[in-house]
Design goal:
With 252 residues, this protein is mainly beta. Helices cover 9% and strands 31% of the residues.
Length: 252
């Protein structure tokens, strides 16, 4: 790697990083009737604030633009979840992310087609792709086929690929604290409320781990290790919109 231009220390290890080559793997939230959707949600709404005679739209005569945004993080674009997604007590995602820099491994997997037409990310596939050549505490899974259709897909009713609970167990056993996937959920679109993969990943003692869903990794981004900057909006909720950024990395 010839364009490394910085260094960072994580967990007592020093890494050389190419900070000038940021790779954004988030899917933006759009208020234009476009963009990704999941779980039956309608499109997000972004509209001008109207209070009395004030209109928050310069095109309509307002002094400045001021928008009201209505979204469901789990359904509209890239989002990061805390264990509060499946617990009765509130656990806010920003509270479990005191730091945002992690060493991440990117792997690509073709989900296995079952007789029932489910597409499953299996434990065996994750094991084959998982590398021990560098220590990492984040894992990013890109599924095949992969195209920019993922930026505007309506996943509702399509039974998209999901993670087998045994794969989630393996990932937790490997010490992965932050799991990122390009699917709407770790679990089957309709699994009767079991959420087996979520629960397997968030096993006992892993309350500070996170799950990020609906990322998009372009074809030209090669599998391997990266510095992950997991930027999450400071919203006190079990999930919030996020912007994961990758930077090329190697041991210094």
């Amino acid at each position: 790697m010839n364009d490394l231009n910085g260094q960072i220390r994580i967990d007592a290890r020093k890494y050389a990083v190419c900070f000038s080559h940021a790779i954004d793997i988030s899917i933006p939230i759009r208020g234009t009737g476009e963009g990704v959707l999941a779980f039956g949600a309608g499109h997000p709404q972004i509209s001008a604030l109207e209070v009395g005679s004030y209109v928050g739209d310069v095109r309509r005569g307002g002094s400045c633009n001021c928008s009201t945004v209505s979204i469901t993080p789990h359904c509209h674009g890239t989002h990061t979840e805390s264990m509060g997604h499946i617990t009765s007590e509130p656990i806010f995602v920003t509270e479990v992310l005191p730091a945002t820099f992690f060493v991440a491994q990117l792997i690509t997997i073709m989900p296995q087609l079952t007789p029932g037409a489910d597409r499953i990310i299996t434990r065996e596939a994750v094991q084959r792709a998982f590398s021990l050549s560098m220590s990492s505490n984040a894992l990013i899974i890109r599924t095949l086929p992969n195209s920019d259709k993922k930026l505007s897909m309506n996943y509702t009713g399509t039974n998209p690929p999901y993670l087998d609970f045994a794969a989630a167990v393996f990932i937790a056993e490997k010490g992965i604290q932050h799991l990122l996937v390009d699917t709407p959920s770790l679990d089957r679109e309709d699994d009767g409320g079991k959420l087996a993969a979520h629960r397997s990943f968030w096993s006992k003692g892993r309350e500070r781990c996170t799950v990020t869903e609906l990322v998009y990794i372009r074809e030209e981004i090669v599998d391997g290790f990266y510095l992950l900057d997991l930027q999450v909006a400071p919203i006190l909720s079990d999930a919030a919109p996020s912007r994961p950024m990758l930077f090329p990395i190697e041991l210094a």
